[in-house]
Amino acid sequence: MIVDRIRWHAVADDRLPGLAEGALLHLRVHGRDICFVRSQGVLHALADRCPHQGKRLSGGWCDEGYVVCPWHRFHFDPASGRARHGVCANVEVFPVEERTDGPFIGFPYTTFRVLGMDLW
Ligand code: FES
Fold this sequence. Notes:
Oligomer: single chain
Helix content: under 10%
CATH topology: Rieske Iron-sulfur Protein
Shape: globular
CATH architecture: 3-layer Sandwich
Number of helices: 0
Order of helices and strands: EEEEEEEEEEE
Bound molecules: FE2/S2 (inorganic) cluster
Structural class: mainly beta
Strand content: over 45%
Distance between the termini: 13 Å
Number of domains: 1
Largest sheet: 4 strands, antiparallel
CATH class: Mainly Beta
CATH superfamily: Rieske [2Fe-2S] iron-sulphur domain
């Protein structure tokens, strides 16, 4: 049977736990470029690649809770990744947990479950 899983990774960067409201931070986590943002007190993680023309979202800013791409100013909801006005594809988002031992990001993956065990 095919099953979807999330693999959690600790994000060891001292700037992340104290990231200010509305601030954007680019970090490379396990080979992926991630744009972290704190919006309404919640830490979010988005793929740091605008779905419009591939520019970095982390070079932008936050406006009324949306991440704004610095190139053509499309807005993205940091929780869902939805483009604000529907004029662009959505950006991929990842779950984030702020645990007592630091922030963690989850990357989804698909595996096969055989006899109750995941193959990878
Ligand atoms: S590259 Fe982001 S809005 Fe165009």
